[in-house]
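Lab meeting minutes (informal)
Scribe: AK
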Amino acid sequence: MSEALPTVRDLVLSRTEDDSPAMLFEHERYTYRQFTAGCAARAHLLADLRADGPFHVGALLDNGPEYSMLLGGAAVAGAAVVGINPTRQGAELARDITHADCSLIVTESRHRKLLEGLDLGAAAGRVLDVDSPAWAAALAPHAGAEPPLADIDPLAPYLLLFTSGTTGDPKAAICSQARLARIGQVMIEMRQLTRDDVFYQVMPMFHSNALMAGWIPCLAAGGTAAFRRRFSASGFLSDVRRFGVTYFNYVGKPLTYVLATPEQPDDAVNPLRVVFGNEGAVHDLERFARRFGVPVQDSYGSTEGGVAVSRTPDTPPNALGRADESVKVLDPDTGEEAPLAVFDDTGKLLNPDEAIGELVSMASAPTFEGYWNNPEADEERTRGGVYWSGDLAYRDAEGFVYFAGRNFDWLRVDGENFAAAPVERILVRHPDIDLAAVYAVPSPTVGDDVMAAAVRRPGAAFDPEGFAGFLAGQDDLGTKWAPRYVRWADALPQTETNKILKRTLRRERWESDDETWVRGVDGYRRLTPEDRDAIRAEFEARGRLPVLDV
């Protein structure tokens, strides 16, 4: 019965009398007693400000104690926190806020300008800055107050986490208090985390990795959270030593960035005990473990929680790992299980057309908590009683799962998901572009790079400086959205119904006969045969050549 399910509220209030360290941030220090008091005060404030409609609070904040106490306060009050991504811009940002039915936005002065001039829907005129005198004054009457009484439904939305799907705008994945609390318990058991651990919390807190792999296991274990506003590769090791960090969670490329810093002979002299994350480059997992003297545990999982794949010690290079028997690779058109992968002596996949299918779970559809205000996406994700991840994969005869990319209408860059459609809508504003297709191509490190194929207007030449200037002038272009590669063409491969064949574009990547440009530190330049050789050599150096051969 739902009344018996543990909640995040339970976890917060269980620390009310705890004087052990809870949060470290810059020069600030908080005990759990202070943390829970801060959560209680914010719960009262949120309850006072509750408007008609969904009790949804948008959080447009950097990492730090304020974000953590807002999460705790929302749990105590029974509100849902909507993680707002500050890399979204203009109309796209406004769409996220209104789609999630935010009735209040909590932000800070450094992000306030992102909201200026936007249609905020129910949150219009209801924006609070946590570094303003007005915020301090609003909290003051609730200082020292007992937590408010609240009738909490453990299965009601607690987090709305934006994640891109197969088409169009991002979807707001629902996570309940019960699910997040359960994730916290599972994490501390699997990673053997305790109240003596210090959790380095630098992944952006609007992202599921930060909350599910960092914030909630720290709270569940009663450990100490060491916050930094944003991740910094150059500040990583000094922070680890200064705060006494024993646990670090990541998503995407942070390991790559840290490894790019100058190596020192004493790098392994640090308190790190566990590093856990998703989507780390295989080549970097071993290097990081060796350089810093700490095991790295990388796995596959999704915000929605539908499919999980875990690495084992015998996992082959470039494989995700093994999953339980409920996880399969199905042909999305027929629903039949895809044949097993066949490799040559070099590890190249010989039967990609047959072996590659969509990674699914035959068991998790009933427990999928859905997307906010998007029944069509719910149905698509769980059609036929099967949970469809949207990720492409193949499986070998030993049961190891290999990631083969994502649906061609969405991308994942530096650990962030976004759809191709909004980028395409921006590119066709360019006066020399008639049609644009945006799609993912493999990054030599991890995840995707953005590639755009543009059908140019007759007689138009690619102007690299002008194109870079055009992108810089688009207020709604996300910070991860600018194409790394641009294919400048008179025509693109299409179906008989004039649908662009993104599968073909992705396979051809930067190796077509069309004019192709690549973005470097000095802007866009024409790609040469020597550049193509250098790109392939980088993939080879990182052990990722099989990704190019899929």
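Next up, CB showed the second protein from the same session:
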Amino acid sequence: MCGGPTGNPKLSLPPLGSQLNAKAERSVAKAEGYRPDIDGLRALAILPVLAYHAHLPGITGGFVGVDVFFVISGYLITRIIAREIDEHRFSILHFYERRARRILPALLPMIVAVLGLAAWLYLPGDFEGVPRSALAATLFASNLLFFHETGYFQIGAEAMPLLHSWSLAIEEQFYIFFPLLLIAVGRWLPLWRIPLVAGTALASFALAVATQGDSSGIAFYLLPPRAWELFAGGLVALGAIPAIRARWLREGLAAAGLAALLVPIFVYDRFTTFPGMTALAPVLGAAALIHAAPGTATGKLLGLGPLRWVGLISYSLYLWHWPLIVFTEYATEARLAGWLQLAVIAASFLLAWLSWRFVEAPFRAPGRFSRPTIFAASAAGMASVCAVALALVVLGPWPQRFGPEVGRMAAAKDDFSPYRARCHDTDGRGLEPCVLGAPNTQPTALVWGDSHGVEFAYVLSRMAEARGASLIERTHSSCPPVIGYQSPTDPSCTRSNQAVLDAILADPRLSTIYLAGFWESPLYAAPRTMAQLDATIQTLIEAGRHVVLIGPVPPNQWDVPRHLARLASLGRLDGATGRNRADITPAEERIARVANHWRARGLSYIDPAAVLCDARSCAVLHRGVPLYFDHHHPSVAGASLILGEAQEMAALGR
């Protein structure tokens, strides 16, 4: 995440501390060409990331700070490698010694602290993923782990205290091959160094753009689509951009670079397709600042003392802020807000300074630890953390820390359809329709919906199987069964829905169509979407199909299995209750209006709230069984209760 093999070589700490080995640091700073504006640029990278993760208002695109760090890192490290190669003194051993000094001393204690806190705080269903991520983070492979675990079946990001280590993994993977590339080019094709690096960067950028709409996480987590951001800084270091001599032009380019970096922080949001084309602004802005800022008004602004200080501690601040936020939100079961936001941010800065002052700086001070000592300590530290993480991986959820009732509640996170991975389209891959129910029978029904339809499809298929029938599941994440709906996060939704409708109309044997969606989602609340749902139902009814509309399942403000497990650990499970009924009334009324419009034409309406809620609140537990497997998806038990009760109501004419 942070730039440079030794980061910033000038280790003087502004007001909060004393210098360490000041004479040696000054000599290193002079040799490396210390630039205070780059420390300021680091501050502009870490502060938006911190603000975004802490949910400070207005910082909706703070995630672009990581991309700025990639550019800084690419610039600083390429500058050092290229200079040493040109001077015939580059050493792979020395390079990795600097990386070890820079990265490991602060990283390993943070991972150990995370393992300890998770073992103490995390419930069984949440704990088992932490040792895996600790092992991956120690081996700089966490981006691969998190890419592999993308999906509904994994713990949400709010319970992953090492999720932020993906960016460190990308950097270290980049620095496995990049020095070798520069060595090879310097030896055999020295005149082609810039064209070859630029060509590789363009290929990486093209891959990023090609995969930017893929919701599987390829463009986000994997090195090939991310490498161009590090190459962008590297090209600046290699002199790919001519020096700008005109003062006015440097001032203008630096100011434009600052604007290109800052605007996305306030304009982008979680619905922005990112990274890819949208990453150009912060990446090119950072590159422009690195190239043009020295000596300009913008450069002087970046070199101000407070920004330099934040830049100096930025690596440790990045390491500590995310676990603090995750553990605090986990313990309180709520997003950071108010005084708790300020307390966590202050604690992040305090831990970052302590880490910088007593861990980072001593290991980075020249001459304080020899190369053999650094390598031996690094190997021992990594081996120890890996051993502890592996031991905890073997323990799995480690339910012995809690009573059996806690484990039973936590286990509800796995109460989803056994066909979810095979049948539910999570990233627009265009999966083949799944036939569920009695084997070797012609399906007579189809469940069409988003992720809320999956468990309903499974329960309905079991009902169908009991009477020798089958049905088809066609579910697509964040894509309601609405013709014409355009998803802000998945462009494949519109054509996927059209394909489902075409398949229904082409097969008259599909006599019953179930429509299910996360109708409580604000993305579905627009009058246009309700009009499109109305038109979709009309098309199906006019085609002679019996339409069954499943209404909104009441969502909750916390993860239900986790919440119930915590209540069980405190002996307060009897008082478990869910969402206030009044909170879900608007969505109920929207869908009910559409349903009532078509009841006379044969539409059947299943209202989950009528089953789960009384006049005041909604249930999350029924006869000791959790009704959700996360915040808002009904578990198999929840879907069974809703559908079973709905059938009873229909039989009684209610």
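CB comment: The chain is about 60% helix and 5% strand.
No objections, moving on.
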